[in-house]
Amino acid sequence: MSLDVIPIHLVNTPPDKTGLTGNAQPLLHELAEQVKCLLASGDASAIDLSALPLTPADLDWLKVALGVGEISVTLQASGESTLAETACSGIWWVTHRNEQGAVTSQFIEVAWVPELVKAHPQDVAIGLETLELLIADL
Amino acid sequence: MSLDVIPIHLVNTPPDKTGLTGNAQPLLHELAEQVKCLLASGDASAIDLSALPLTPADLDWLKVALGVGEISVTLQASGESTLAETACSGIWWVTHRNEQGAVTSQFIEVAWVPELVKAHPQDVAIGLETLELLIADL
């Protein structure tokens, strides 16, 4: 499974009085295509929200549109990351924060499970060594 | 990837003054074998803690021994479930609670990612329909 960060080209439109630029709606079309791709091939993908001309109002609109799902993941590693399933299963809202709690980047990931949640073989092998040391000390 | 709930046979020993039965230590050996299996074949497995003669002190001992990892997952579905990575990557402590917050079952799962965290194709297909309705309404 490859994780591609999709480059999205949006117009740099000035926001209206509500702060909306109209740039959030096309992302729903893009997400629908990505979900179709996940279902067809299992290929995961991501949209880097920080790289797009989206206002805070656009991001709020998108978050409300996608809704809240049943699963929420917290990852503590030099700052907290949250990986929240949206009401559209397979679409995850990923927020990375620094140690001071400020948002450093935001992604929407389309995947069976976000890449960061999976244990990696090297880490599992290190964990096994820890466990074997623990057993040796019993 | 298959998820097997491993039957473990432990002696029904009465606890000592600290509440420990000595039944928790053999589980570490079992977990080490399961982690080796995960690394070798990718096969996930689980130990149903509720089905074993373990006291609350045994469970606490096991939890402390395995430590706390970087990832914690919360799942809200007729009661809250928590799926917490232990300090041994690939070993997850899974607790299911009912709507009143009482623990209904506990598992230790050995997997790249716990089964319940993964979006299932049927749910993703339903999510896609929701998304397409949303787009049609724009």
Write the layout of secondary structure elements.
Two copies of one chain form a homodimer.
Chain A: E1 3-5, H1 25-41, E2 44-48, H2 56-66, E3 71-76, E4 80-85, E5 91-97, E6 103-110, H3 121-136
Parallel strand pairs in A: 1-2
Antiparallel strand pairs in A: 2-6, 3-4, 4-5, 5-6
Describe the structure.
The structure is a homodimer of 138-residue chains. The first copy, chain A, has 3 helices and 6 strands. Chain A is of the alpha+beta class and 138 residues long. The mean pLDDT of chain A is 93. The interface between A and B is large, with 45 and 45 residues. β3 of chain A pairs antiparallel with β3 of chain B, so a sheet runs across the interface.
Task: Give a short summary of the structure.
Chain A has 138 residues and is of the alpha+beta class.
Largest sheet of chain A: 6 strands, mixed
Architecture of chain A in CATH? 2-Layer Sandwich
Please tell me what the overall shape of chain A is: elongated
Overall helicity of chain A: 25-40%
Strand content of chain A: 25-35%
Q: Specify the number of helices of chain A.
A: 3
Q: C-alpha Rg of chain A, in Å?
A: 18 Å
Question: Structural class of the secondary elements of chain A?
Answer: alpha+beta
CATH topology call of chain A: Ribosomal Protein S8, Chain: A, domain 1
Q: What's the arrangement of strands in the largest beta sheet of chain A?
A: 1-2-6-5-4-3
Query: Largest interface: which pair?
Result: A-B, 45 and 45 residues
What quaternary form is this? homodimer
CATH class of chain A: Alpha Beta
N-to-C order of helices and strands of chain A? EHEHEEEEH
Poorly predicted residue ranges of chain A: none
Mean pLDDT across the residues of chain A is 93
Separation of the first and last Cα atoms of chain A: 40 Å
Number of domains of chain A: 1
CATH superfamily of chain A: HupH hydrogenase expression protein, C-terminal domain
- Number of strand elements of chain A: 6
